[in-house]
Amino acid sequence: MPDKGLYERLNSELGRIHDQVRDLKVNQYVFWEVQDIISKNDNLRKPSTFYGWMGSMYASSMSASVRRLVDQRRDALSLVRLLEEVKANLSLFSREEYRNRCTNPNVPADYTDGDYDKLVGKGNRLPDPAAIAMDISSLKEKTEILKKFVDENIAHTKLEERKDQDIPKFQDLDDAIEFVEQLVKRYLHLFRGVGMSTLLPTWTYDWKEIFRYPWIEVRDQPMPPENRTARS
Predict the structure, then answer these.
(1) How far apart are CA 146 and CA 151, in angstroms?
(2) Average pLDDT in the 57-72 region?
(3) Cβ contacts of residue 13 below 8 Å, gap of 6+?
(4) Please, which residues have CB within 8 angstroms of residue 33's CB and are 6 or more apart in sequence?
(5) What's the predicted TM-score (pTM) here?
(6) In this structure, what are the phi and psi dihedrals at residue 25, rounded to the nearest 5 degrees?
(7) Which of 30, 31, 71 shows the shortest CA–CA distance to 155?
(8) How many CA atoms lie within 13 A of 179 on its CB side?
(9) What phi and psi, each to the nearest 5 degrees, are found at residue 71?
(10) Per-domain residue ranges for the chain?
(11) At 79, is the pLDDT very low, low, confident or very high (cuts 50, 70, 90)?
(12) In this predicted model, what pLDDT tens digit does every residue of 31-50 receive, in sequence order?
């Protein structure tokens, strides 16, 4: 008999991982939307320490977030460890269990079977452990440059000691996030029968509204530090 308690624990962990990846998607989306705003405004396309700071903080914090998803320590909540437990407990995700979890009086049984076929292969009773192993391997490969950057630089090295060749490109980060999102969507489907096109949420307000107003009123603009004089 499948261990229902184990399934519930893994399902809860997947939910928490989903939340982490959703946050990654939100931060990624906001960052690139702001870059688009900057690129389309002639007044903003000029050198700025702020842009450098924003890019550096984004790359560092996002890399660290991705790094947590591939942490293999026994006490870590990570996508790698979750997939390893799925591979070790295939009976929890059998065709029969999928049918039981995805019972819906409005959905024909053959539709549920067809859905499972798309996930694990036509006619298969269980997921293919080799396919899950490939997911784990690909996840590690896609995130390796970010993991190495965090392990060798963010955690242990001063900023001025970092080597340019060790710094991931934004494309490396985007590729890793896209792959992680695809995996989370696939396993949410396997766990819960839930198909999702994206983990990015829909905003219920205009988050860009703050950019439609001047941030600094000219009359309130402080003097640059180099122009200030000490007062007696």
Answers:
(1) 9
(2) 94
(3) 77, 82
(4) 208
(5) 0.86
(6) -65, -40
(7) 71
(8) 22
(9) -65, 130
(10) 4-227
(11) very high
(12) 999 999 999 999 999 999 99
